[in-house]
Amino acid sequence: EFRAKQAAYARLEAERRLAEGRRVRPHNLLLQPWREFYRRYVMLAGWRDGGVGMAACGLMAWYELRALVEVWRRGQQPQLGG
After folding, report:
1. Are 61 and 4 in contact (CB under 8 A)?
2. For residue 2, what pLDDT is reported?
């Protein structure tokens, strides 16, 4: 259930980012998820929750990657209209 919701929210997040004119560079596909994991695990003290915290931080990093890949895919498609 969590993964299904995460996929839906990743698509919505990708739409928001595209509407803002954001684009994804190849290095973002590696760095942004890592940065999200670090932020949640270290800065927001996800480590305090042990294995569950690590798993949750990893899933949120995966969510970030899914949103970036969706932006990448849609950004590579030719724009219609205009």
Report:
1. no
2. 82
